Amino acid sequence: MTERSPRRAATRELLSAALPPALTFVIVIALWESVVRVFSVPRFLVPPPSDVLTAIWTERAPLSGALLTTAQGAVLGFLLSASLGTTAGLAFSLSRWLERGLYPYALFLQTVPIVAVAPLLVLWFGPGLRAVAVSAFIVSVFPIIANTLAGLRSVDPRLSDLFRLYGAKLGDTVLKLRLPTAIPSMMTGLKVASGLSVIGAIVGEFVAGFSEGNAGLGITVLAAYRQLRTDLLFAAVLLASLLGLSLFALVNVLSALLLRRLRAPG
Amino acid sequence: MVKGGVLIGRRLSTLLIGLSVCFVAGCGKKSEAASNDAGAAARAQVKLALDWVPEPEFGGFYAGREGGAYERRGIRIEIQGGGAGVPVLQMVATGRADFGTVGADELLTARARGADLVALFAVFQTSPQGIMVHAARKLEKLEDAFHSGTLALETGKAYAAYLKKKFPWDGVEVVPYDGGVAHFLTDPSFGQQCYVTSEPLAARKKGADPKVFLIADSGFNPYATVVVTRRELLQKQPELAKQFVLATREGWRAYLDHPEVTNALLAKLNPALDVATLGAAAEAQKPLIENADSKQFGLGSMQQSRWQTLADQLLDLKFLDKPVSVADSFQQL
Predict the structure, then answer these.
(1) Which terminal CB of chain A, N or C, has fewer other CB atoms within 10 Å?
(2) Does B120 lie in the same domain as B261?
(3) What is chain B's pLDDT, residue by residue, as a tens digit (333 residues)?
(4) Which residues 6+ apart lie within 8 Å of B179 measured at CB?
């Protein structure tokens, strides 16, 4: 345990997470703009970033509505994944039988091509938020299960022995030893899942989202593509990835707070 | 697996197109005999990219290929079937295909975005785009479909924007169109966009009783299944483009008169459709392809006034930023 203030640690963690991608972003954008201009690439194939920014501004009203809709689906799917995934990981860690019986099927969720099953989700859940959230859930749950399980299994055997020696109850062992040990790994799972849930939501919207009123970014992407509006398409994609990044950052902050609490004395 | 072949094919096709244009330009009438003598090696290899899966709405192209209409004109045609979201315009604009089929509205929109493509042949004089609902709902007019139930549309398409602007949409849930009829069959309040030659027949085959409204009747009627090419090809190989159009017209004539043989082939290419359904579709599309205009001016012919109407409508729908010159958008060969 270091002595530096936890808040500063959290800020530093956030900064070190955000700075390198921001730098890459700036460099790529500069390169992209100059390549498109120098070689006069047709705009229906690749728009210059300046066009994309303009599209974000001129279409800000529909885009922000779409962002909000997609965010709802992604966050709902992510929360489903986080709660069910963590529970499943915990259950698997407590019972080899459960793990052997169910883990292969959890793995199946990881390998299922979401594009292929998305049309079924509409049939089962009806179009709109529910189907989109389930799509986000399917795509994002497995990393949480796998990382929770791996974290819970990574307890130092000597500490395990110590707990046994003192006759600790199972509940205490889980709460005071296994879960604290598992937190970093669980957070990794949640971070992976945060980005995936946005992907799942967008793919879900392709077939299951409402197209009028509160249409999500997935619908914006489809409509922009049909009109060869690559500027608007890139704008929607950019917003989708920003959504993924903010979810990721949120998980990062939460995990820093949680770790701080766990490491605080007493 | 296709990429390497496409590259080689394109290099080869450039050579072959060059050769055959020499024949055509240099030897006039004799070129046909010459190219026949020289056999396959002297034929121009062209690729036609379709914007949907093989169906009767492309029957004339297949009939032309099978019946030798293209071959007799020194063209070896490769027909590439498409599906939802296939970027036909981009493929033709960038040279990955020589010809492609799109909607007239898509062509004008793409031209406004900088893709210099030209329409050569319009298969459908009347757009087959429709809205299909369950007959049991007893809807009398197209606009009734926007008051209740669920409606699957391709948001972002011009016809959808037109309907949105023309009719009040209240109480309808709009969802993405997935290309099939599964939802339609399971949900009596479900309606969807359709080609009158396709989905209604598929739904009927599965026991549903659909009622179809043709969107063209409401005033939005772009030419459909329009053959386009890039201006560069048209300028460098005008004879190839012309022969392609003539062969396409011959193919469509053959398909309209005798669709049976081609339908047997289509049934193999697209196992989702059987010969009976294909026959019904071919029959249903006839009046949309052959109307007064195409009887007078020839199959596939286009009128400037209709292009202008479409351009005005697209401008009104903000699909175009500014008025465009439709004279550049199509060419009768």
Answers:
(1) C
(2) yes
(3) 333 344 444 444 444 444 444 344 434 333 333 344 434 445 799 999 999 889 999 999 999 999 999 999 999 999 998 877 788 999 999 999 999 999 999 999 999 988 999 999 999 999 999 999 999 999 999 999 999 999 999 888 999 999 999 998 988 989 888 878 888 998 999 999 999 988 999 899 889 999 999 999 999 999 999 999 999 999 999 999 999 999 999 999 999 999 999 999 999 998 878 899 999 999 999 999 999 988 999 999 999 999 999 999 999 999 998 888 899 999 988
(4) B83, B84
* B155 at interface of A, judged by CB pairs closer than 8 A: yes
**Cβ-contact B14, B237 below 8 angstroms:** no
Identify whether residues B115 and B230 lie together within a single domain: yes
State whether ipTM is beyond 0.90. no
Q: CA B47, A40, B8: angle at the middle one, nearest 5?
A: 30
Tell me the chain A residues in contact with residue B109 when contact means C-beta distances shorter than 8 Å: 227-228
User: Which chain A residues have a beta carbon less than 8 Å from that of B183?
Assistant: 122-123
Among A155, A4, A218, A16, CA closest to B176 = A218
Domain assignment of residue B333, yes or no:
no
Say yes or no: B163 and B239 in one domain.
no
Rounded to a whole number of angstroms, the distance from the CA of A221 to the nearest CA of chain B is 9
Domain carrying residue B33? 2-126+222-328
Q: Which residue of B has its CA nearest to A45?
A: B90
H or E element that contains B124: strand B117-124
